[in-house]
Amino acid sequence: MQRRTRDQIAARVAQDIHEGAYVNLGIGLPTMVANHLPAEREVFLHSENGLLGMGPAPAPGEEDEDLINAGKQPVTLLAGGSYFHHGDSFAMMRGGHLDICVLGAFQVSRKGDLANWHTGAKGAIPAVGGAMDLAIGAKQVFVMMEHQTRQGESKIVEECSYPLTGVACVSRIYTDLAVIDVTAQGLVVREMVEGLGFDELVDISGLALRKGQA
Amino acid sequence: MINKISGSLEAAVVDIKDGATVMIGGFGNAGMPSALIDALIGQGARELTIVNNNAGNGDTGLAALLKAGRVRKIICSFPRQADSHVFDSLYHAGKIELELTPQGNLAERIRAAGAGIGGFFSPTGYGTLLAEGKETRLIGGRHYVLESPIHADFALIKALRGDRWGNLVYRKTARNFGPIMAMAAACTVAQVGEVVELGQLDPETIVTPGIFVQRVVAQGSH
Predict the structure, then answer these.
(1) What residues 39-78 of chain B have any CB closer than 8 A to a CB of chain A?
(2) B164-188 as b/e, with b when 16 or more CB fall inside 10 Å?
(3) Does the model's pTM come out above 0.95?
(4) Exposed end of chain B (fewer CB within 10 Å): N or C?
């Protein structure tokens, strides 16, 4: 079977982001999704630190320290973009105004619980940022991640062992192996990479999955 | 004549007492009022409780205040960063207390204080470690957590321009926490890039009306 690269996962997520969507791309892997949104599709990117209509990284030498994204990297503002304060920015999330947010994850549970902010390791300094607000705020929460840890354990689990970011908040999971919806009837597989059989995916995932239509 | 312009950065922070709660604007370094923080370090107040999104970057600004040993407790959402070494060592040495709050709850707790709200039910954090021990309520089929307002004695913020009535406009994403912190503090001090005459700021685009601001100081004035 041919596993999807991170770039290919990002490209697959981008396919599901429709014209006119208000979207927040989380720090890290999800920011790659922006590279795969076709230029002719108008999508409004939101950044938690107070901008809508976020554009790409500036050309070298054009950086402005007052214009950054949630990862504190320099960005640009598209024509039509706007700035606002943190109260409004998080009202956009919590108030259900964002259509989609894309987040990375350590684990997602069968019920759509998300763990992505803290490993719970002793001595680790906890830092949550906007992760919990994003997890419960957007109309649809997409998770993109590798299907397994480096040790080969499934990151899709019956119950998360890491501390939760949000309860029953994930709508769809994109991995290097499959696209899986979290539904009231359980986890439904919409797509698998070429050469991967359903039984093999269930075996890798270590929990019950249902066959769905793409 | 009302004149909220302070003659110097030092004068603008002179009455911050030991043990005060001080909000500091900024998201990382964008919007951080570094000149006011330097003045506060020089002023010497200790045992401070600081409210900021982060816990300092590098060795300047908020990180320098921490390094000087002036901060007892920090309320923030994202202390750990690639360059948060000052906070990291204080935390591991048990020399600073951390109250971790999801970023949106932090913003709304600040806004609530400024808006006279005694508490609010937020869906953020329900069922997580950060909601442990807090009152919860099921409202319209959704779970919420009771969150309390954060009041401050002082807010130190950065704006692009201000006038002698305390009206402010900001620059790009450096706006971030400034407008809500200005509402939540008993005394808000704004470090501005430029002091302008009354009427120079378009009333349609003033972001923080002067009622929320007690002092304005040009960032280079000593």
Answers:
(1) 53, 77-78
(2) bbbbbbbbbbbbbbbbbbbbbbebb
(3) yes
(4) N
pLDDT per residue as tens digits for the range A66-98: 999 999 999 999 999 999 999 999 999 999 999
Structural contact between residues B129 and B119, judged by C-beta atoms closer than 8 angstroms: no
Q: How far is CA B39 from the centre of its chain?
A: 16
Distance between B122 CA and the closest CA of chain A, angstroms: 8
Indicate the Cα dihedral angle A168, A169, A174, A180, nearest 10°: 40
Over 80: is that where the pLDDT of A192 sits? Answer: yes
| Marked catalytic residue, from A19, A40, A48, A62 | A48
Pairing mode of beta strands B152-162, B21-24 = parallel
By DSSP bridging, strand A178-183 and strand A186-192 are antiparallel
Interval B64-107: pLDDT, tens:
999 999 999 999 999 998 899 999 999 999 999 999 999 999 99
Q: Do B176 and A123 touch (CB under 8 A)?
A: no
- B191 with B36: CB under 8 angstroms? yes
Please give the pLDDT value at position A69.
96
How many Cβ atoms sit within 10 Å of the Cβ of residue B108?
27
Task: Write the DSSP string, chain A.
Answer: --PPPHHHHHHHHHHT--TT-EEEEPSSGGGGGGGGS-TTS--EEEETTTEEEEE-PPPTT---TTSB-TTS-B-EEEEEEEE--HHHHHHHHHTT--SEEEE--SEEETT--EE-S----TTPPP--TTHHHHHHHSSEEEEE--SB-TTS-BSEESS-SSPPSBSS---EEE-SSEEEEEETTEEEEEEE-TT--HHHHHHHHTS--EE---
CA B41 to chain centre: 16
Which residues of chain B carry a pLDDT beneath 50? none
Do the Cβ atoms of A175 and A146 come closer than 8 Å?
Answer: yes
